[in-house]
Write a structure and sequence with these properties.
This protein has three helices and four strands; from the N terminus they run H-H-E-E-E-E-H. With 66 residues, the protein is of the alpha+beta class. The protein has a four-stranded antiparallel β-sheet, with helices on one face.
């Protein structure tokens, strides 16, 4: 889950405060993923893959995550 990644990879110091509760979303490939929106990044966790962090970018805004 994205929140576990947040906690074990820097938490507040690295990513800032979470801005909303973690939620599920469907990725571009149709696979379900968990999303955690923080002050500095969006953490996206797809099952079976390494979590990624996306800058608070046009993609995150387009998806309606922020």
């Amino acid at each position: 889950e994205a929140h576990a990644y947040y906690t074990t990879h820097g938490g507040f110091a690295e990513y800032g405060y979470p801005l909303r509760d973690e939620f599920a979303a469907t990725g571009g490939n149709g696979q379900l993923c968990s999303i955690l929106v923080c002050e500095r990044v969006v953490i996206k966790n797809v099952p079976g893959a390494e979590p990624t962090h996306l800058a608070l970018s046009a993609e995150a805004r387009r998806q309606g995550w922020v």
